[in-house]
Design brief:
single chain, alpha+beta, Thrombin, subunit H, Rossmann fold, 3 domains, eleven-stranded mixed sheet, six-stranded antiparallel barrel, 16 helices, 24 strands
Length: 592
Amino acid sequence: MALSKITEIGEIKSINGNSISIKVSDTLRSNMPIIDGIVYKVGQIGSFLKIPLGYATLYGIVTQVGIDAIPDKFKEQEYSFFINQQWLTIILVGEQIGNKFERGITQFPTPGDSVHLVTNKDLELIYGGFSDDNSIIVGNISASESLTARIDIDKLVSRHCAILGSTGSGKSNSVAVLLNAIADKGFKSARVLVVDPHGEYTEALKGKCKVYKVNAESKENNLFIPFWALPFNQLIEIFSQSLLDSNMDYVRQKILEYKIRSNKENKLGIEIETITADTPIPFSLNQLWGELDDFERKTFESDRITECFLKKGDYEKLVSTEYKQASTGNTAPYYNMQRKGILYFTDSIRSKIKDNRYGFLFNPGEYKPTFNGKAKELNCILQQWIGSEKPIAILDLSGVPNEIMQTISGTLLKIVFDALFWGQNLSIGGKEQPLLIVLEEAHNYLKAGENSISSNTVQNIAKEGRKYGVGLMLVTQRPSELDETVLSQCGTMIALRMNNSKDRNHIKSAIQDELQTIVDLLPSLRTGEGIISGEAVKMPSRIKFFKASNAPKGADPKASEKWTLEKKEMEKDYKTLVDLWRNQQFNIKKEG
């Protein structure tokens, strides 16, 4: 018997756009035919069928099976008409002309055309054709595990992508597999920047990444984000969100004066007219604190001119200058009548500078400015983050206080994107050396409807990044909390197991309408299995990701193994635990 007869399963009865209704043949001998020794199952949701049209063959994905697949005009028939009938709905996604497969349809079938099973030989054609130069292998096709799953690197990076899945679905492993595959390609100028809130990927990408971490043991691996690189509003929010508008303008003007002076004294060569309080120019925060604090505390003698000075303070050590206490009556010493009433604000500045948790921000080593604004420049930080000798740089934010996580993550993203925007015509710009930014736990600092620096910056990258060679990879377990505009900008969607219906509906709104029913498969996926759709793959594909050789930190500990070990109850260890907790550290710092 000819192979075409063996694979034939039915014929087209109705066509609605690219949605095709198929009646399965009454003479089909089995729903599980054996072809060339391989068992195929007819009518699997997400499986492929083909429609030969002479010199071209159309391919579609099964999205409905059973009574729901019957066209409405046929449902007017009596129930007895449908007894022992099987119906399928497929969505056309691509076509084969000769030995080449492409997404999209140039011609459509007609009612009466025969429909066939897709064999392994067909799958090889569909999933083949990738160039080794611009693709990576990340796993196997679930429908035929002998076939490797490839992803187009160019489309993955330039058109943005999202990796979505519930906790325990294999999300972190998938990210590790993707990034390892990129690193293993041996590109000379690959640039991947991972923003990692929990320090998950250090081990998983070992040997292929450079890690910059808050409070790192190694001096050269310390992550610094100098306060003077923050936009004015984000810097002020760290100290207080209750400054009056007039006081906000007062502080803004002070910072602007410091930046203008720093530009002049350090001969930075910036035109004064272009400098604002947002311009990333070094200035001394200690000096700002000292002058603001001193102005608020001053008291005067009866002439209202002579200061009631007692003891000089120390701006560097954050010690306030002492004055005689002001009288409560109408006698000297008098308050400074021009004071702004912002001592609570200056006290907040002092407490934040002294807080070790904020050391990466307010005491950033060589990036901390002197009183004249001299400090190591931003280009050194940028070279670390996006000019590392390793293909991947990880910014480990696990030591950043939760209350400023959004501000810090948004600031570092803004620094990188602004730098590549203004450097777009240079050899290190994004057009010449594209950059992929991976945002782990993206829902933590990319909330829907939120007007924060992190949300605004990521939205800008999603909309404009492609022009400047900056790609996004959003990784989250809660897509429903992400900004829908950003998610819709992701050209490739990798969805792993997801049980929450709200999250699944959010994914549906971001993918091709006709393929939305495939999202209903997500709860049934195995751990490490995902559905990839979009521009980086030739066809929407259900794949099983490889297992990363070094498990990410987020991998589940195996209780059955760990509990078999001898229980440790050492008094010294518990004391060390409390010391680490108090000092906001993960490891004991070695002396010397």
